[in-house]
Amino acid sequence: MAALSPVPSMEDLKVMFQESSLIFPYKETPKKSIFLSNMDQILNYDIPTAHFFGPNPDFPPETVAERLRTALEKVLVPYDFMAGRLKQNRELGRLEINCNAAGAGFVVAKSDVSLDEIGNENLVCPNLGYRQLAVQRLDSLPPEVDQPLCVFQVTSFKCGGFAIGMSTNHILFDGLGAKVFLLNLASQSFENKPLAIIPYNDRRILAARSPPQVSFPHPEFLKFDLPVGPGSTPPKFDCIIEELDFKIFKLTTTQISHLKDNITKTSKIHRISTFAVVAALIWRCKAFSDDKNRVSTLLNVIDIRPRVNPQLPSSYSANAVLPLGVSETCEEIQNGAFSKLVEIITEGAKEMTHEYVKSAFDWLELNRGIPHGDYMVSSWLRLGFDEVEYAWGKPMYSCPVVNHRKDICWVFRDAVDGGVSAMVALPSQEMNIFEAVFHDFFASI
């Protein structure tokens, strides 16, 4: 199946910004500093998402904006850290969140296009125009005022439908933490309804051991020759902004089933996950743009909640993820059996044991480092943002918003046929190779 470029006509959704303000907790919250785990420390970048809703005569966009504002005021009490600001603890050389109730961002906007103009097929192809639906900073704030850690945006369309955009600093939480937050935000959009889930906010549950005990090598992190401790600053896992091509690569349920059937015939894996199949294909496409004599490393982002003992609460509202690298030579990736790549990814994930997790957090306590690999694949397949029930209904579609990360590929459900889409951003020449390999792969099976 062809890769889909972001729809050219939809690069500009003709958005007019009407209001930009700060939302504060509806009642006083304790002033405190929140400890950030060693994984939280390095995820200091924004993740924008967009959630689309069709017209609802009982909830026009103006009503939704007011309901959402009130829901945010309520939910910022149990999620007080979302209304706080990052600060550097110079004595410890660590970032913390200062819970000072400085507020979350809130934006109201209007688009001069309708959802029908975008079209169902195009709606689920996250295009460049979606960046207008989830702004990442409030230009209305004076330069000396710290920007909020999260910004929410309600954008109405000409048809009466609307989008809720959310841009959050990754330090706040991972994908599953975001799902719990959205369930709670949605619960507060109803009148007199309790929180859906009590969030578990104690991040010290993932603090390093004292003394640290590093029992594994951790090649998934790039070590910097930087000081650790008083006066130091954690490195930031981000990349430069450059000219990139954006494409969505789609795999139908039929294609995925066919690949799984073929792998089963030649592989010893008893249970083949959709993620492993998609990640293996992405890895293969990416490896073709590299020197075949070098080793390529794919980073798999793994949820560690069920992998530690005792297990973390499912309501843990922070970052409970770790990258795990799997490696192979580019020549073997290009010429070897596809099933072998699926096996490498599947077997590699089993290394993420309780002791490995503890060792990784301890390594980060002793070293300054960031995730390191040729490509990272982050799965949204289990998040289910489109299953969240608000007072005005469930989203017709939820998706990540394209951004400047050329080192991360996001994988998510395709809302049209239930297959899988992969959002890829690469320099033009690398994208041409990636796309050609993707097409050739399906032409050969």
TrEMBL record:
Gene3D superfamilies per the UniProt record, alphabetical: Chloramphenicol acetyltransferase-like domain
InterPro entries associated with the record: CAT-like_dom_sf (IPR023213), Plant_Fungal_Acyltransferase (IPR050317)
Residue runs in coiled coils: none
Pfam families: Transferase
Single annotated GO MF: acyltransferase activity, transferring groups other than amino-acyl groups
Family: Belongs to the plant acyltransferase family.
Protein's recorded name: Omega-hydroxypalmitate O-feruloyl transferase
